[in-house]
Amino acid sequence: QVQLVESGGGSVQAGGSLRLSCTASGYTYSSNCMGWFRQAPGKGREGVATFATAGRSTYYADSVKGRFTISQDNTKNTVYLQMNSLKPEDTAMYYCAARRPPCLSTTWSTPESYNYWGQGTQVTVSS
Q: Rounded to an integer, what distance in angstroms lies between the CA atom of residue 51 and that of residue 24?
């Protein structure tokens, strides 16, 4: 079984930065098939930044392009989300997710295509 544990959330002022981490344990798929989602109150779960096609592709929500960066460290079995220039609208519960290869680009932002989820870490951005 796969366990995903997120950390790094917190409360920051607009314009600040946070770095989220997701560490996988147990049987794990390639980190190239992992990514980040978020869910704000009253909204559905939204794809934020993911790897796809075994790391050959990286996808970002339009709302975070230029501000967020997804990266990985395979030696630590960890995926990161560097979030800069945070805005109040970034406030949400952030979830790490993983799926089986081939992790096609077509479904990069579809929650139903992901098999494993972390418990979530809260990010709150104040104005």
A: 15
